[in-house]
UniProtKB/TrEMBL annotation:
Pfam families: Acetyltransf_5
Protein's UniProt name: Acyl-CoA N-acyltransferase
InterPro entries associated with the record: Acyl_CoA_acyltransferase, GNAT_dom
Residue ranges of coiled coil: none
Domain called N-acetyltransferase: residue spans: 77-244
Organism placement in taxonomy: Eukaryota, Fungi, Dikarya, Ascomycota, Pezizomycotina
Organism for this UniProt entry: Apiospora hydei
Amino acid sequence: MGTPFISLLEPSKLDDYDRTKPHDQQPCPVPKVFRDAMSVREAVFVDEQRMPLEFEYDNDDPRSCHWVVYASVSKVVELEQVDPDSGLILRPRRSETHTLPIGTMRIVPFPHPPHPQPDGWYEDYKLDRATTFHDGQEPYVKVGRLAVLPAYRGRHMAGQLWVAARRWLETHPRYFDPSVTEKGMDALNAEQASEIPHWGGLVCAHAQEAVIKTYERWGFKVDEGMGRWYEEGVPHVGMFLRLNTKDVPVQV
């Protein structure tokens, strides 16, 4: 595997995406980086974890930022041919190198559905609630859809994705804040500037229980007040991290 590199796709129009079809059957207008992200998500969540394909794409995808990590992979396309009598090589082995998407992650901007209820299923509730690390009102961004192909796990690919996403968040702290010029104060339900939603560095993760330790290594803490709930039958917990958006050094 060659040196991996990471691509970012900012919020994009995905009207042509057909959630009933896999990534390699999507129309050309769908951005390639997003199709690559879906190739990883399908391999991990659909093929490996047996979640329905039509549930993998959701309404958060068009408004999210997506990171995809790629690797340069060499593949043998012709085997070496050797003369059986002389032992001389008649034709050397030939390989080709191609770029393979091996991991992905997304950041979903606010607003979000309210926190799921403990021991329940993730659904939309009318009112949010305060939890251990969230007052039930402060805007936060949500990291999710973290997936790495099985063959590339244990090589810090997930950590590299988070480093890229975290650095971007820390250097674009106002990116997701709503524009008063575009929406107007009435649409934001604000009478004065202090009431305009403003991201203050709070990041949430709805983490599968199997990857809690991964998020803990990145500084996230389990929000005990959120309890444990199920998404597509898989147990999840809420985790939070507060970023300092003022030039904080980042480590994998």
